[in-house]
Amino acid sequence: EAKNNSGGSTVQRSKSFSLKAQVKEMCTACQKTVYPMERLVADKFVFHNSCFCCKHCHAKLSLGSYAALHGEFYCKPHFQQLFKSKGNYDEGFGRKQHKELWVHKEVESGTKSA
């Protein structure tokens, strides 16, 4: 315990305080030291607040406005633009397209009624 000179109140120091050098965290983007006041963690990657930007347009990101893929960070509009599946969801995976099934049904119904 130490006495405060101004008012005589008591100030307690944490017993867990250590003089050992703290491990410096490095920003994923700029590789410079990140101090606690400017620290942001997204998907276990440490950034400066100002370095947390979209890889595509470099817009500043926040924890509620980003999407990540393979350690790369994007604003949501660019993530959708760059990685959204294009085309029909029923194609692929070894399945026939639904429109092909419709053609077969039309042909079958046409031959039966003729």
Automatic annotation (TrEMBL):
This is LIMD2 protein. Pfam families: LIM. It comes from the Eukaryota. It comes from Penelope pileata. Residues 25-85 form the LIM zinc-binding domain. Gene3D superfamilies: Cysteine Rich Protein. PROSITE patterns: LIM_DOMAIN_1, LIM_DOMAIN_2. InterPro entries: LIM_LIMD2 (IPR044115), Znf_LIM (IPR001781). One of its GO terms (molecular function) is metal ion binding. The keyword Metal-binding applies. SUPFAM superfamilies: Glucocorticoid receptor-like (DNA-binding domain) (SSF57716). The lineage of its organism: Eukaryota, Metazoa, Chordata, Craniata, Vertebrata. Keywords: LIM domain, Metal-binding, Zinc.
